[in-house]
Amino acid sequence: MSPTIALAADGTVEVVAGGSGGPRIITGTVQAMLNVLVFDMSAEEAVESPRFHHQWQPDVLALETSSRAGAPETPLSAIRETLRAKGHEVADAASVGVVQLIRRVSGGYGAASDPRKGGAPAGR
After folding, report:
1. What is the residue range of 66's domain?
2. Is residue 64 within 8 Å of 74, Cβ to Cβ?
3. pTM of the model
4. Is 7 helix (H, G, I), strand (E, B) or coil?
5. Which of 18, 22, 24, 26 could bond 97 through an S-S bridge, CB–CB 3.0 to 4.6 Å?
6. Domains in the chain: how many in total?
7. Residue 121 maps to a domain
């Protein structure tokens, strides 16, 4: 769902992404794409990075604890505590969407399939 294509100024494809996860689809897709476009992460880094989600109801900011089942908790405890100190209600989330992403790299494309759902790109 929410297939998204980001183009460079010359019209070439930079990133293609989409996901699943109900109301968290857009949140996960946008964050993975921003990881590539703003932070220049590889496709795998962008998709595996922890995410957050907030929607109007309930008024709770959900922060992922890990991107993979069995993986150690990510170092977000300081962020959680800072947000709580500012009055935000923060909850742990097992998953914020499941994203598949392809990005242009030198000489071709790099792909990643979200480990939150145990996927792997074709050919691996």
Report:
1. 4-115
2. yes
3. 0.84
4. strand
5. 24
6. 1
7. no
Dihedral of CA 41/43/46/49: which sign?
Answer: negative
pLDDT digit string, tens, across residues 54-97: 988 899 999 887 655 545 555 567 788 889 999 999 998 888 88
Of the candidates 55, 57, 56, 31, the residue with the CA atom closest to the CA atom of residue 45: 31
The three-class DSSP label of residue 88 is coil
Q: Has residue 40 been placed in a domain?
A: yes
**What angle (nearest 5°) sits at the alpha carbon of residue 4, between those of residues 112 and 124?**
15
**Rounded Cα gap, residues 44 and 42, in angstroms:** 5
* Strands ordered across the beta sheet of 90-93: 52-53, 61-64, 90-93
Tell me the CATH number at 75.
3.60.20.40
Q: Is residue 123 part of a domain?
A: no
